[in-house]
Design a protein that fits this description.
single chain; 159 residues; alpha/beta; Rossmann fold; six-stranded mixed beta sheet; globular
Length: 159
Amino acid sequence: MFRTIAVATDGSPSAVNAVAAAEDLARHFGAKLTFIHVQEVTVGRGGTFVRPSQSTLAALRDRTAQLQGEGIEATMSVSRATHSGIAGEITDLATKAGADLLIVGSSAHGALARMVLGSVGGQLRRGAPWPVLTVPFEYPLATAAQDGEPAPGLRAVAK
């Protein structure tokens, strides 16, 4: 049913759950898997600041290589955007990858934080040209388990 699955991750625990779900679905459908990571850029009077995510990038590179070693066609796309442009950048990268499904983790923020900060997942659900699967914050990693352990490399993505 799905040929290319994109999963947007920022390294948060809910994003790790989304990665687990994306890997499960990619295996089930024999689909390509694209990891998307958009680094948030903050612009201020003193210039710009990119939120560091080197450990997340390293974990995603490692996981991409591991999946390729398992015979899964896996790629990674990385970009930068301000907070207001993250959803658009994710959509652009997923479209370039040829995605027909996008998977994201749900935010653990409350209603007030979502109102003030906005929800990237909500923006994606409203504006994406393909289905967006939102994985709950409480999604059990056991679905990606092998011998009772989460799939290799998933814990590292959350660091």
